Amino acid sequence: MRKIFLPFVCLAGCLAAGPASAQTADIPSRLSLADALRLAEARNPALEAARQQVVLAEADAASARRWLNPVAGLLSEGYHGSAGGPSFFDQQELSFQVGQEFELGGKRRLRATAADATTGRTRSTLDDQVRQLRLSVEHAYCQLVLARFEAGLAKDSLAEIDQVVAVNRSRYQQGEVSGGELRRLEVERLKFSDDALQADLGIRNSRAALLALIGAPRLDLPIDPTETLEMSAADRGLLSGWRGDVAALTGQALAGRPDVAAARKDQERAAAVLGLQHALVTPNLTVTGGYKRDFGTSGAIFGFSLPLPLFDRNAPGIARAEADRRQAASQTKAVEVAVSLDVQQAVNLVDVSRKRVAAIERDYLQKAREARDAVLAAYKAGEIQLLDYLDAQRAYREVQRSYGRALFDYRLSLCELDAAVGVTSRGSRP
Is the pTM of this model over 0.85? Predict the structure, then answer.
């Protein structure tokens, strides 16, 4: 029995693992930012849910355009049921009627307009989720790049301190340094080793965050970014001569950002709903026609009905729709103010970040490297104390970290400016 059952278990396991393996194969081990953005837009579950909202809105819009169904009725009255008399149909009053209700006041048109505006708002909301997802992916990708940069710094610092420890052990054996100095250096190595472990943790967490955004089946896949913190020629050109035109960028954002478009579509929906509520005051006309057989006599039926709006003028519905229209207008203004603030803050961030990178490159990076190299050479020659070397090493490491963080902030500030303006490709900003 076990031999028969075992192949079925293996087959079921292979079938279950198949989709996950296929999804894993779609994610390259060397991942570019463009690939990460493409995978996120294709596989992110939150985006898929938003796409289904668009499908639902489109279905509602199609339903809003439909005519009301006609009503058919068959009525029998006065049947005697006497034996030997007239036929069954001639012993009663039999009538067949078909009625059609017609919506007056443009109700169907207004309902369709409101549904179309809702569909447009839903599509714009989807586009805005794509915009925000792209920024999240760019942030996670840059965070992974920064983590690998800091891990490289920690690895290099640890390798250098290990060389110094090896030199001091040899000098200790020759009696050139004291045991206390050697132990002090070995204890100091713990800080460099802890930095390396923290950097490795940063890589793992950043990688998991990026994999979650691109919809990976596992969050421990061994992916590495293909890009570095080094700036492109276009980004480096902004360091010296960039002047953000806030007015032009704000105008582009207000014209192109999907959250602004969604708010304006909601205004259109609210205006159409208000018109529909006013139109509901106009009653619908129902036209009826049919056939009637009255105890053997045939005839035609025609009539119409029209409700009399004497007591209900739809005042509550109109009041609610008017409040909804005012609320939608206020929300649109709030969104436009928020977008203008996003653009201004993004421009400020780019300006400060580029100045920070330029200042570190101009005033600190080379000087810190030269000072560290000079102190290291002097320490190996026995000209300075251990504390002087450790201070120089810490200063150099902090400058390198600050430089990496400055590059990260500058690159991310450009991504945030693109997101604030509402563009999806670099270079389309004014």
Answer: no
